[in-house]
Amino acid sequence: MPEQIPDSILPKASAKQEAFITRYIDKNYKKKKAQKQAMLESAWLTYQSSRNTCSEIVDLVQSVSETKEDYDFVRDMRLKTSDAIAKIKPGSFKGLSDATKQIVAVAEDLVTLKMQALNYMRSQAQGGRDMTQEAAIKIIVGEARANLLQINAEFGAKAEELRGKVRKEAPNLSWDPVEMGQFAEVSKISSATLLAIPKTGDKASETSAKSEAAEAVKKAETARGELIASMTDYAESDNFTMFVADMRRRDAVVVALKEVRETLEQLDRWGVPEAAGIGTDADTIEKELDLVFADRSGLSASEADTAEKAQSALLGKAVALGDTATSAISRTQETFDSEIDKLRPQVERLEQRWQDCKKDVGKTQSAPIKAQIAAMRLSLDGLGGCNTDAIDAVKKMIKETTDLVLEAENIELLNERILSLLSDAKNEAKALIGKSNPIADVFAKHIGEIDEFKGGFKEKTLTDATKGAQELLEAVRVDVKRNQDLIDRRREIMERIAKREQQLVEFNLLFRQMLEHAGQTPKDYRGSFQADIETCKSWAATKTDPVFYDTIDAKLTSILTGLDKEAGNIRLLLSKSNQELLMEAATAATKHRDANLDLNQRDGKALAELAKAQAALAAIQKRLDAGEDVPESELKAANDALAAANKARGDIADERGVVQREYDEATVLLDQQTQLVKELAGAEAADELAQRKKDEFIEISKEWLAAVTKEVGDKATVLADYKDEADPQIERIKTARKMLKDDKPGVTGASALSELEFVKKFLDRLRERGKKTDRRNLGDIGVQWDKEVIKVNKSASDLITAIEEFEKFPQIEGKASGDVEKMFGVILGRMQDHAFEQAAKTFNDSDDKQIRKSAREQALSEVRRYRALMFNDPLLQKCVMNPFSVPVGSGAANRLDEIELNVLRGI
User: Fold this and answer.
1) Distance of CA 255 to CAs 35, 146, 175, 288, 653, Å?
2) 3-state DSSP call for residue 299?
3) What would the pLDDT profile of 62-117 be if each residue is shown by its tens digit?
4) Is 499 a residue whose pLDDT tops 90?
């Protein structure tokens, strides 16, 4: 057997060829180009058929090859086929006609090669060369398969010719008149017959092989002829002519509906009221298409005529609907143009007013006004279609711009007003910087904010600048009132604390007497009262929210109640000696024992009487059940006996309660004394624990303060950006550490450790924010926003998980997690992580001031858009205030503020 043909010379169609031709053929050409496109498609199908058939016949030659001559022939044919296919070069096409010409030429070359391979196949069968029976049968079957392939190709070519005629009559006809399925089935059966012819064994015979092969080929030839004749007859029949006419009308309806749908897109986008009705009518027509355009070939003449009228009527409805949609567009356009014409003079007047007053406005202060006017003009000139929502937006911009221009016309008065507000705010804050004020550091911070605002307010719009100055003054006055409230509350609280301290001194005198009375060494009470008083002192000296003083007040009331209660107990103990208490307890125990013995005996007798009475009643009931008459006096006596037994047992239970209470009262004083002595030991143990906590905090805080101070001082870290927020927290730990080391009251080791954990979490939240937006490096805002959107996605997932966990409780009705997930899906779909990428790229790549200003407006527009989403969406706000303590969106909101501030300052 000759060796296999190497894969490297097997004919292959280029994927580039296939893709390019497919795109070429799929284009929707019109008129003359549509005809050329049809010719190209027909040529391409012929080429594909020739290419496939040629390769299949050469494969057959390969399958029966036995000599080197056979092998050389197959190899030569493979090379020639590959060379022919390679001649199709899509990159060299100069148009549809040129592409068709190239493809037809290659198809003809492939047909020639196909015939050469077929002739070689036949020559093998007729060559008379000496060969085995198996080889002879293989050649017979191979020639038959080659003939079958030829028949397939001829049927395909004839079928394509018929398709071309049909397309010429009805270019958009969806029905295919070529019944490829029937012929394919016959061809498949014939191929299976050939493959089943035995080549070896008892049943193998050249004669029978020739007979069976000829019969299989004949069946395929017959099917080809019959089907082509049938299809040709139908294509020339009146039924086909009627069907083509129906399809042309159907296509006209489809085209009309398509135009209506295109118009509807505009009507929907512009909010035209008629759109809903037009859409409904279009849906109705579309639903009627298949019903109205059913096949009419089997109908009577009258029925066919009625069906044709229904088709024409449906076409008329589609065309009329198109006219209605077009009229709606025209009316809307006229209304829209009229609105625009009214707005243009307003814009022009605003621009003129700005020109008249802009010389009095500073360069930096005029920037936002100029930007707003430019944006207004751009919006007006850039409106397309008939979008009434866009007109509303322009009207809003005109109103906003009018306010800005009005401010610019009065800029000197407004600037004086702003400076006056800032001056008032600063003077009121400076008056309260003294150390005697509880929140003096807050007023120092206010002064810093006022000075910073004063230096940059001209970079803001006048409205924002005035509003900002007013808010600063109001913030100072709010804290002035808070400062005075704190002074008043602290004075009241300190007076109450002094009274509690005096009460504690008096209590300790009693406590010492109690210990001495109990035979213990006299000491001051070491319980929680002193620590609670010190805690109140600390709170009174440090808390800056007046409302918190209600908590201190409540704690002092609790201390007073506790002192009064314990003092009363001690005074009661001091009224009797320890020996007297022991004797009374012993006497009470003896009395309690004797009384219980007597009660137990009496209760036993009463229980026996109860059982006896119950037995008597049971016997009477048995007699009654048997129908016997029982005297009423006997029944009454039995019930009275039962009642007497129950009463006796109840009286005994009451007496037992009285005996127990007398015993408890006699022994309670002794128990109280024992308990108070135990409290002393517990307080001393608490002292030891407090000392350990103190030592632990002093050691841990030393290392932590060194590390975090270094971190805040490193400009490369996140905390360095939030130094103004981190420093006060660090100072809290420094203060607590100093107070503990100096044994100052007001703080304990346990409370200091708790505060350290709180500060650690606070700083972790600062770190989570990421580096602040830097006005000197605005190119980072895209990446920064991307990180914030990722965080919001994570928060959304955490919140949904928290809700799902809550919903696992069986008493929870309804499942909100699914609704929240859907809502977040919508919101997160609107929060694009690449929102600021383009502006950031411009800031990075360009130093041109005008280009950077354009990027600034782009960034500010995104800030406004996302701020509106985050602060105006009621569902999102509910999620922000969720009861599961999952932070949602706070980082993104802070980032928007930073981007806005630094984009304004950075240009």
Assistant:
1) 19, 46, 17, 15, 101
2) coil
3) 776 777 887 888 888 888 888 888 888 777 777 778 888 888 888 888 888 878 87
4) yes
